[in-house]
Amino acid sequence: MSIFDRRTASILLTILVFGLALAFVYVARAVIIIFCLAILFAYLIDPVVRFIQHRSLFLKQLRGPHVAEAYLALLIFIALIFHVLAPGSLGRSVKLLQRLPTLSDRLASGEIAADIGNKYGWNDNQTLRLKTFLIQHRSNIEKMTGTAERLATTGIGAVVVIPILAIFFLSAGESLADQVIHLVSTKENYEDFCSLAAELNTMLRHYIRAKVTLGVLSLAYVSIASLTLRFPHPLALGVLAGTLEFIPIAGWMSAAATIVSLGALIHAHWIWMAVVLGLWRMLMDYGIAPRVMGHELEIHPLLAIFTLMAGAAVGGFVGVYLALPVVAALRVVWRRFATHAPDLGAMSAP
After folding, report:
1. Rounded to two decimals, what is the model's pTM?
2. Does some domain include residue 217?
3. Which of 300, 226, 296, 323 minimizes the C-alpha distance to 266?
4. Is residue 9 part of a domain?
5. Tens digits of residue pLDDT in 185-211
6. Total count of domains within the chain
7. pLDDT band at residue 339 using 50, 70 and 90 as cut-offs
8. Owning domain of residue 140
9. Is residue 221 part of a domain?
10. Cα–Cα separations (whole angstroms), residue 135 to 107, 126, 140, 167, 210
11. Cβ neighbours, 10 Å, residue 189
């Protein structure tokens, strides 16, 4: 008599395979995250590619050339936006990046207190108190600066790699999905897997539409705030904030750091801007984003807030970005499984 019967052995094998899959996901989590973000970026560009392909006079059946046209059109559009709204912004951005290390050193050493005191007419005691405060918290300031530099480096790397991977998904995404379906399905459940893939495709499209909505809201808010606080080129700053809204956490952090640093360099109301951006982030994360995402993905706003908080606890910055689409995908899979569960039970009945 064997120790394990066939059913027990099957259950143990399933648990083993599931455990190995989880271990693989954990080990390769960085690569998987990059690929997930590339897929989402492909969904963002896909409407432009379809628009160009449907109105093209040549090579309608080939998708690759139209992907290249979409990327070229996107680059030209971004360049025109910054050229019209903020002429010479590229040169000033380079100068700002070159001055950031000096600004960081002056902030950590407290020397920037003199600039702030001269700007707002502080007396010597007020300036000295600020300088003493900055010196006492020098280690924390240096840690925050180092973290920001690492996030910026990671963000630049992602900005380069993700669009390149997205080209492959845009060019051969449908054939790749079809190959995966053939790999995991049988003749009996092939149609069910195709239907599931179609539902997941629709869900991801809704997710990207929600992200576009949030980007437009950030664009409008930052533009109005910049105009109110008399920052130069308010619409350009709004476009920057709205565009970086698509990048996980590091996006809005980079936008806020750029706007506040610009205000500090030109002696604008950068402290008020930092407060305004902080309030907007809280309103966005705990009010607007859960409602917009919940509406598009058919998830209750309270569940959306819980999902975002759980994603932050489990996966940090990236967990916040991927938590909602993952939960929405699991919801689609579970709904499909629950719909077909009675049929499976009837098939397995003697």
Report:
1. 0.62
2. yes
3. 226
4. no
5. 777 778 888 888 888 888 888 888 888
6. 1
7. low
8. 36-348
9. yes
10. 9, 14, 10, 48, 43
11. 15
